[in-house]
Structure formats: C-alpha cells, structure tokens
C-alpha cells in the first residue's frame, strides 16, 4: 500500500504545522490573561505595621489597574519565618506572592534554629520595594551633639556606653553592632523585648542611644524629646535631609530595614515580569510615595537581578556581623 501523502495532504500538513508554531506557548497565553482572579500578598507583619500599611496602599492601586482584588494575608511571628513558610506552602499558580522584610531572608536562617527554607533554592526575587534606614537617636538632653562625639566617648569607655535595641539578633541590634565594628567602638548592647521598651529606656536615661527606623522615633524627635545623630542610610532620603549620614563619620556604617516582593520558585516568568512592571509603577505613584514617607519607608523599585544582588550583599554583611558576634541559631 502506498503511504506517501498526496501533494494536497502535504500542503495541509505544512500549513497546520506553521499555524501551530505561530501560536504562543500555553504559559504565555496564561500570562497575557493574568490576573484573572484575586492576587494574595503574604505579609509576615501584623496588621497596622508600616509594611502592612504600605502594601495595602500599593495593593489598592494594583487592584484598580488589574480589575481584580488584592488580598493582604498577615502571617506575623517567628521573625518572618511563619510568613516565609506560608509563601513556600502556596501553589505556583501566580496568585500568591510575598511582601517580606529583608531580615527574614538575610538574618533569620542564621539565627533561628530549624529554619527549613533557603532563599536561593526556594524563592525568586521580584523587586525591592522600599528601604527604611536606621536612625541613631539620643535623648534631647544628651551631651553627645554629633555621632563623632558619641563614638569618641564609646572608644574612651569600652562597654561603658549603653545602646538600646529591640532584641538580640534583630536588625537594629545588628545595625548597632555594625556601627561598633566599623568604628572600633565597643558599646554595651542592651536588648529589649520591643521598640517601645527600648524607647522608654533611652528617654529615661537607662541607655544613651537607640537604633530604630525613623517612623519609630519620629514622634519624639518632632516633639523635641529626642535628637537623631545620624542616619545609617546609603543616601539622603527626601524628608531626612536634616540628618547627616553615619557613613560620613564611620565609613561602612550603612544599614536599612528593607521590604521586597518575592515569589515561590516555579511561578511563570512572564507573570513575574508583569508583576515587577506593575509593582514598580505603583510604588512611584505620588500618593504611594507620600504614604511611604509617612511610614518612614522610601520606595526603591528595580529589577529582579538588582534585588538578587542586593540580597547577596545583605546576607554577606549580616553573616559577617553574626560571625563576629558569635551568634548561632537558637
């Protein structure tokens, strides 16, 4: 039997093949329709916290753009570990993402025993969202008028100048430790259960300085009860122009809290690209920038590659500090 296709059949087969090859892949078609349902952001913070308020504000703008709901799912606790695990447990269908703090990525795996996730293995970066530089704040009646004064006093009295933070191994503690390591000063680090207790201790004179983001100290600074000696930011942010950069006095004394959008590995890359574009545009809307500034955070959108480099550098910085402090998982 002759199985050679007829000329007409061959032409039909070739046309069908060309039409099939012209179709976009299935994932591209899905990405083009994304989002077709509500998008969820897992936030490892309690409702009402600065990052929670920020992502809700951004989410409202994204919802308007997408014509879909944006759900903020608060999963606080465990220094961000509970939220990270919730993201890891979610499906990779492109409808669950994380709006997480940097310490959950850069610090928690090295300080909390039993952390099972590995960022590079389990997650992908989408965009850096915002930074919150740490402030070095003293009581209004402090004898130290500049950071140079404070460092000089600490060098003259090793372990004799108390600095408050909100817990051993937290970002403010590590920022203070970094300042000490870079300056050659030895502070007496005093750990409190939270920022409110550290604030009261500093206002009451039990500690000489505290390290926190500006939104935490702003009320007392504006009320004349505290002064900011310096910002540990890597640049002068709008609204913080009156505070000198700590790095001008102590090179390398740069420390931020930061927040980023991440996804579980396996989400469609085209969905991630769309989210990156839309998120970055929303972060720079005037009302979002204004809200962010109220919260003491400063938009810093960018590419996934930029966030990946930022994370790698941040992890190295804090691992070096943890090693020098001999802090192990516990």
UniProtKB/TrEMBL annotation:
PANTHER family: BLR1237 PROTEIN, TRICARBOXYLATE-BINDING PROTEIN. Keywords: Receptor, Signal. Residues 1-28 form the signal peptide. It comes from the Bacteria. InterPro entries: BUG (IPR005064), Bug_dom1 (IPR042100), TAT_signal (IPR006311). This is Tripartite-type tricarboxylate transporter receptor subunit TctC. Belongs to the UPF0065 (bug) family.
């Amino acid at each position: 039997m002759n199985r050679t296709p007829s000329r007409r059949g061959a032409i039909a087969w070739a046309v069908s093949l060309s039409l099939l090859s012209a179709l976009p892949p299935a994932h591209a078609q899905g990405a083009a329709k994304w989002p077709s349902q509500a998008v969820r952001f897992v936030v490892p913070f309690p409702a009402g916290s600065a990052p929670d308020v920020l992502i809700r504000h951004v989410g409202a703008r994204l919802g308007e753009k997408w014509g879909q709901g944006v759900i903020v799912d608060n999963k606080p606790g465990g220094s961000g570990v509970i939220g990270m695990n919730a993201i890891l447990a979610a499906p990779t269908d492109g409808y669950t993402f994380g709006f997480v703090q940097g310490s959950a990525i850069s610090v928690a795996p090295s300080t909390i025993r039993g952390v099972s996730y590995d960022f590079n293995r389990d997650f992908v970066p989408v965009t850096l969202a915002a930074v919150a530089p740490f402030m070095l704040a003293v009581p209004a009646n402090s004898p130290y008028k500049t950071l140079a004064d404070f460092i000089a006093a600490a060098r003259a009295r090793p372990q004799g100048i108390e600095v408050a933070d909100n817990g051993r191994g937290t970002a403010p503690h590590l920022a203070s430790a970094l300042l000490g390591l870079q300056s050659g000063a030895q502070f007496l680090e005093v750990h409190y259960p939270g920022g409110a207790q550290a604030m009261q201790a500093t206002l009451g004179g039990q500690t000489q300085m505290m390290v926190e983001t500006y939104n935490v100290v702003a009320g007392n600074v504006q009320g004349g009860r505290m002064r900011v000696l310096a910002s540990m930011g890597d640049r002068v942010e709008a609204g913080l122009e009156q505070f000198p950069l700590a790095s001008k006095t102590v090179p390398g004394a740069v420390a931020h809290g930061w927040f980023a959008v991440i996804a579980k590995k396996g989400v469609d890359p085209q969905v991630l690209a769309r989210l990156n574009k839309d998120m970055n545009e929303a972060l720079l809307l005037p009302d979002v920038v204004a809200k962010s500034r109220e919260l003491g955070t400063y938009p810093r959108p960018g590419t996934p590659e930029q966030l990946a480099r930022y994370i790698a550098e941040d992890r190295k910085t804090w691992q070096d500090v943890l090693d020098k402090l001999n802090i192990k998982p516990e």
